[in-house]
Amino acid sequence: MAGRGVSCLVTATGGTGVGWNGGDMGVAALISxxxxxxxxxxxxxxxxxxYDVTGEGAPASRLPTPVISGHVLFALTGSxxxxxxxxxxxxxxxxxxxxxxxxxxxxxxxxxxx
Length: 114
Description:
Elements: E1 6-10, E2 16-20, H1 23-50, H2 65-88, H3 91-113
Antiparallel strand pairs: 1-2
Helix pairs in contact: 1-2, 2-3
């Protein structure tokens, strides 16, 4: 059962099981991605409440809407690519998700510094 990305694991009871290398880290990365996504949704809700567009006396936001929209859309796209990577074990989707993550970080840094 030797294959690319597959290793034989020995359990505490002496039995063997088959698992993928880095599978636990991939799931941990997905969990951290989801945690930061929920934190980002919280910040988006705060931003929407504070800078209510429908109110006439609301102060103008310093954050451009395209930057916020792009950040959210890239985050969703990157997480989809990461899930595809975890399910298919294909390196291309994983590296694509990492590249998208760099764009997400750049947009997040742009929003943070404004």
